[in-house]
Design brief:
This protein has 10 helices and no strands. The chain has 233 residues and is mainly α. The protein has one domain. α5 runs parallel beside α8 and α5 crosses α9.
């Protein structure tokens, strides 16, 4: 693995704290629909840039078409299975379980990104921090219907967010595999990121009020991450 396990886990602190921050903010005053949509557009742009600039090149450089195909198909099947589970989920426990699985997969993808390189992991950490911030808002809203305790809501949200470092740990043994296997796992991660952008963040964002400024947040996030990549390269 290009980056040590300890370093990878230290990077996951930011998304976990972001989830707690989102839950805390939501218990005090939930952002209006316009702000929530803007956050989702921004997060989608950042995640898309991280996938295109960091993960995709490593998949292509792997030069293993079969591994790319198998990993990519597995990623699509896994994310569609999660989508079906989320659609069937009813009640707070079911919804929280679905969100937990989502965060676990995000952690797995983050761990795979660090296999591609420290810079890829850093950029994806930034992207997932924004995504998990919004998930903190979502979890808080779901729990608020069943418990009035702010402390319980915040602690439950942070507990679910801890599945992110757990997912990153699962990816650790992948670095010991052959380049073809690594390429396949990175292809899996790439499909998961594209699903996150197209089927979750943007779909949910477009269910809220929209205007030219909110839509521009996607491109601001995309360009912002590209500029950050140039600055740290």
């Amino acid at each position: 693995m290009t980056t040590s396990v300890g370093t990878v886990l230290s990077y996951t602190i930011a998304p976990v704290l972001a989830a707690g921050l989102g839950a805390t903010a939501a218990t005090v005053r939930r952002p209006n629909a316009a702000w929530a949509s803007a956050i989702q557009h921004l997060a989608a742009g950042v995640v898309f840039a991280a996938a295109a600039a960091e993960v995709l090149p490593d998949v292509l450089h792997g030069k293993s078409p079969l591994a790319t195909l198998i990993g990519g198909v597995a990623g699509v099947v896994a994310m569609l299975a999660i989508k079906r589970f989320e659609g069937a989920a009813k009640g707070p426990i079911a919804i929280l379980t679905a969100v937990g699985v989502d965060i676990l997969v995000d952690g797995l993808v983050l761990g795979l990104a660090f296999i591609a390189g420290a810079k890829a992991g850093l950029l994806l950490t930034i992207a997932l921090t924004l995504e998990v911030l919004f998930l903190g808002l979502t979890i808080s809203e779901s729990l608020n219907k069943s418990t009035p305790s702010r402390v319980v809501i915040i602690l439950a949200t942070v507990a679910i967010a801890l599945l992110l470092p757990a997912g990153a740990l699962i990816a650790t043994p992948v670095s010991l595999l052959s380049p073809a296997w690594i390429s396949g796992f990175l292809s899996f991660g790439l499909m998961a990121l594209l699903y996150l952008v197209t089927e979750e963040l943007l779909v949910e964002a477009h269910e809220k009020p929209d205007n030219v400024w909110i839509s521009s947040a996607f491109f601001a996030g995309f360009l912002g991450l590209l500029l950050l990549e140039e600055l740290i390269s």
